[in-house]
Amino acid sequence: MNSLRGFELVDTIKAALEVLCPRVVSCADILAVAARDSVAMLGGPNYAVLLGRRDSLIANQSGATTDLPPPSFSLTQLNTSFAQKQLSFRDMVALSGAHTFGRARCVNFRNHLNESNIDPAFAATLRPTCSNSSADDNNLANLDVSTPNAFDNAYYRNLLNRRGLLHSDQELFNGGAADAIVRTYSTSPSIFFTDFGNAMIKMGNISPLTGTSGQIRLNCRRVN
Predict the structure, then answer these.
(1) For 127-144, how does the pLDDT look when each residue is reduced to its tens digit (9 = 90+)?
(2) Where is 204: in which H helix or E strand?
(3) Taking the CB of residue 131, how many other CB atoms lie within 10 A of it?
(4) Element (H, E) at 219
(5) C-beta separation of 156 from 186 below 8 A
């Protein structure tokens, strides 16, 4: 929560597109393509992105927050949350692999440092920048401690070693139904890449606005 960055780049892309082809490419499509290209540029799969989305006429922060599974979720809660969006259990495990890069705020992993399913040595490396003080709430740590700037399957290898940064990360390998999938992804990047790409395509098709619904925004930060 409150950790998204890069909106200035979206503004730059949108401005360039409006010069070349005004009112054609939506902000929603820009985000979908940018997500795919970011993954591919860092070594991940170059999956297909279906285009033609339109932009919403409203912004709903509470709705967005409600739809995002919090880092405190259990495996059962994660599965339920993804299933409500017609995403399978395997989709959920694959999409969680996006945590192979990115960072999280201390406030989102502080409690996990004292849980039994985290490697004590790993937890000890995080405590200096994530103490019990609220002053540390916004301090950041890499979601993937092994290869934080690459899109690979190291995230799953970290889970095998109890080095998941978030409680919800380590829930994927904690004696539950996801353990076998995590093991598969940890040894086969090609299977992970295929499943991740397919799951991203499915997620990108969750209730898109098309046709005459919504609008093509001129500025991604506000409605026309």
Answers:
(1) 999 999 899 999 999 999
(2) helix 189-204
(3) 14
(4) none
(5) yes
What percent of the chain is helix, strand and coil (3-state, nearest 5)?
Answer: 50, 5, 45
Q: What pLDDT, in 10s, does the model give residues 159-205?
A: 999 999 999 999 999 999 999 999 999 999 999 999 999 999 999 99
> What is the pTM assigned to this prediction?
0.92
Contacts 24+ apart (CB under 8 A), 187-196: 188/153, 189/152, 189/153, 192/94, 192/97, 192/153, 192/156, 193/44, 193/45, 194/45, 195/90, 195/91, 195/94, 196/39, 196/44, 196/45, 196/47, 196/94, 196/95, 196/97, 196/98
Distance CA 37, CA 122 (A): 31
Residue 55 pairs with which residues in a beta bridge?
Answer: 215
What confidence tens digit (pLDDT) does each residue in 71-98 have? 999 999 999 999 999 999 999 999 999 9
Tokens (6 digits) for 63: 């709705």
Q: Would you state the structure tokens that stand for residue 67, as one six-digit string?
A: 């739809």
